[in-house]
Amino acid sequence: MKRSAKAQAGMTLVELLAAVSISLLIIGAIYTVFLTGIRAYQRIGIENELRSEADYAVAMMMNKLYELAPDGVDLSASNERKLTFIEDRQQWIDASSGFVAEHEKDGAALTISIENGALAINGEAISSSRLSLAADSTLSLRCLREEKKGGAHLCRSGVVTMKLAVQDRNHADSDSWLYVQPFTLKTEFGF
C-alpha cells in the first residue's frame, strides 16, 4: 500500500511560521496593555499618597491655627510665601455690664511658610520629605479689615488662599516610567 504526500495530515512550515508570528503579535499586545495598566495603577497610587500627605500637612496647619486662635495677620511680616498670624487680644465678659470687653496682651505669633519645597510652621517643616512643593506654590491673603498698630500693619479679618503645587520628590524625573506630573491643591479659609 502506497501513501501519497497529499494524504498526510499536519502543518507546513509556512503555516507554522504564520501561526507563531500571529501568536507573538497577540502576546506582545497583551503584554503592552498589561504593563501600561500596572504603571497607571502605580502612578495613581503615588498621586493618592501625595494628596493624603498634602491633606495631612494642611490639617496640621489648621490645627495649629485653631490652637493659636489668631486675631489677625501681620502684613508687614508676610509675603506670597509666608504669612505671620498673631494673637494680641483677649476678650472677657464684663460682669457689671454684661458686655464683651477686649484688651490687648503680649501676643503669640505663628508663621506659616513655604520653605525649600516644604510647608513649614515657625520654620519647622510639617510636610513629609517625599512631598515637594513647586516654585509656583503660594500663600495669599485678601484683607477685609486693616489696622495700624505701632509700626505694624495688621489685617484683622480676611481670607487666606493656599495654592500648593505638589510633586513627588522620588518620581520628579519626567523620563521615569512612574513620573507624576505636579498637581495643584487649593484651599481657602477665613479668619
From TrEMBL:
4Fe-4S listed as a keyword: no
Subcellular location: Cell surface
Classification via Pfam families: N_methyl
InterPro entries noted in UniProt: N_methyl_site (IPR012902)
TM regions (residue ranges): 12-34
Keywords of the record: Competence, Membrane, Transmembrane, Transmembrane helix
Organism superkingdom: Bacteria
Matches recorded under PROSITE patterns: PROKAR_NTER_METHYL (PS00409)
Name listed for the protein in its UniProt record: Tfp pilus assembly protein
Organism field: Geobacillus uzenensis
